[in-house]
Amino acid sequence: MKRYPFYIICSLLFLLPVVALGQTTAFSESHAPRYPRVKLKEGVKWWKMLYDGGMTRTTSGQWYMEIPDGINDLSVMNFVDGYSFGPHAIFGYMSPSRQRFEVEETVRWAVSREALLAKGALRWYSPVERAVMVELHGGRHTEDYDHDPTMPMSQSLLATGIFGWNHYKLLERTDAGLRLAFPVGNDLDVRMHLAWERRREMENHKLTTIFGTHGQDNVPRLRVGKTASELMLYDGETDGDMALLNLEFNYQFGQQHVVFDDMTCLSRSSYPRFSLLTDLGMGKWHFASFDLRISGDNNLSRGEDELSYLVSGGAIYKHGDLSLTDWHHLDASRFWWQKDNALSRFVLLDNYELSTDRSWMEGHVQWASDRMLLTWLTRNGMFLKEYVQAHVVKVPDHRAHWELQYGIDLFRLWKFGVAVGFDDMTCRGAAFIMSLDINKAKNFKKDSKGF
User: Fold this and answer.
1) pTM for this prediction
2) Contact 285, 322 (CB under 8 A)
3) How distant, in Å, are the alpha carbons of 201, 203, 441 from that of 115?
4) Rg (Cα) of the chain, in Å, rounded?
5) How far apart are CA 326 and CA 284, in angstroms?
6) CB-based contact 110:84 (threshold 8 Å)
7) Is the pLDDT of residue 438 over 90?
């Protein structure tokens, strides 16, 4: 075990050579004539990348390096691992034909449980307008029971370190897998993930934060009765080996693909988006799940009003019991501050409270306007937008849960407001909510320097 810190120091030293090469500010044209001219995605200076996060590139644009959260990535804290130290970085090469090759690594030493945690990925990207990606990944790491939690792990760890909030729960995964993403025609894209993973239940190895705050134990809470106060500790099995196949099909008619730079291509359409998600699992547990989603965004009244919606329904077919890891989890978190503005989030439900291994139906709708109440009174719709949201979910053996929200969207990146929730017609309570899109905030700060 004494060698593990040495490995971490070596990983940190690998950060230096690319960083020293500088920043990209130029535009270039591919040497291959069949690839159109595309602007290079700009990087930041190396010291800004280390301090605040971001990507830096060489002057030619061929080599780049990214540290997503800057110096914050070097040290994280949760109650299972305690403090973990080590680098998380992405190294990449852009070929003259605009094919991209990436290596992503995370190597950390978990102090409290004296364990080396490491994971990595090798990726290949086609030219950005062709939208093809292949990834090989693997490692041993600590992750949420939910494969895709509404709060990204970086924010969850920040909430733990400062506030001692750990309503998310962690397990140890040792996995290896292959991911593919590719379009079929103009309007259909397909994603596939084939993986093997070994799960292991974990206990808290650290009792308090640096401020003396105690966290919950590392056991998920599920609702067993009709009210939110009737939460039960999950007592099912977590440990086991699984082979998993995940397939995702997304269809949206009339898509327009806009290339912003050699790493960014976004698609847009005024038609609804249809998604089918299928998960198959074999090993200690056997199951198949299906999730059909319909979503969309529409501009109304000459762009002054916006209507967004998401409707989802699905079911899980299982043989015997099923680990909580493979249940359907809602986008739910009662933590008052969020990092993004996901429409599908329930703010008065705990993370796993209404998770289900049977069937579900949920719906979300938002009306945002420049001409509601405050915006109409202040006539300041340029910077201010108001929104009203409604959310509802129904799972077997529980009453329908629904929420109403009202809030203000400032500069299209900071939302704050209030929410009230009900279980059928019984009032669940009210909450203050706030969300800040960190990536948009950074770009907004950069674009505002000239004002």
Assistant:
1) 0.87
2) yes
3) 15, 14, 36
4) 23
5) 12
6) yes
7) no
